[in-house]
Amino acid sequence: AKATGKNTFSVYKEEMGKHLSARLQMEKHLRNAINQDELYLVYQPKINLFSGQVIGVEALLRWRNPKLGLVPPNVFIRIAEESRMIIPISEWVIENTIRQLQAWQGTEYQNLSIAVNISSNQFSHEDFIHDLARQLDGANLPRRLLEVELTESTVMTNADENIKRLQLLRHKGFDLAVDDFGTGYSSLSYLKRFPLTILKIDKSFIDGVPNDDEDMSISQAIVQLAHSLDIKVVAEGIETHAQLEFLQELGCEFGQGYFISRPLEIADLNKWLQQHGK
Ligand code: C2E
Ligand code: CA
Ligand code: CA
Ligand code: CA
């Protein structure tokens, strides 16, 4: 027979089918990830750029599956969000974060905070804030030790409604950081109304230091804007000494990135903390 004359459409369907089944496969594995003990957290230190002192860590989720290997969070979190699995997974993250905070109580690390990334459907969940408060109280932990990181796009979607929720969160004593700042659409007038504690300058701007004038100007503008609103700034993705120096010159108070430390599993984090002193 002649080449069966697959038209573009059937090739497309086949590709789509492959893509879909890989995705369904992943979704199926992800459903078992918690039971099978395949999730774990890594922690990236966040330091004061002037004193060098560690002020806290950011918890980042990892999924290692025997068949799929280590799946990047950008990939599986999207699938989790689209399939509602994000809810049990997020609960797992918060429970484990709380457990780690408890493990540090009574040690020299008891004031370190842990920042957790909260996805938008988790944040918009009715009971989220009350549950979080109850969980920290139940664990006898000051609420400020758990810092909530929301992306700029989470915060800006339904901004008017979110203001109330953000106020409640702050009112309950949680610190609030806006992640990936500068990448989305942020209205400056909202920024003034949002009760934020921290802005995180997106890594994409830090990447441009010291060669891209625009990225450097934007970084500078973000630091100035935040400070004029009494908001502190964390620069993420610091990979070089030059970037660290530039940020110090801007007066950016906090930073994280590979130059300081990669995200570490808990045993390595505890070692890093000891070596780092304080
Ligand atoms: P994010 O919150 O912006 O986290 C920063 C990402 O940059 C992390 O990637 C971190 O490992 C990476 N990073 C930190 N410093 C450097 C650096 O100096 N150079 C480079 N090249 N990368 C650096 P990761 O761990 O792959 O996480 C990716 C994204 O997945 C996170 O971005 C966050 O949006 C999401 N994510 C991670 N854990 C969770 C979680 O528990 N819940 C939710 N909802 N999202 C999570
Ligand atoms: Ca983050
Ligand atoms: Ca970010
Ligand atoms: Ca540029």
UniProtKB/TrEMBL annotation:
<protein>
    <submittedName>
        <fullName>EAL domain-containing protein</fullName>
    </submittedName>
</protein>
<feature type="domain" description="EAL">
    <location>
        <begin position="23"/>
        <end position="277"/>
    </location>
</feature>
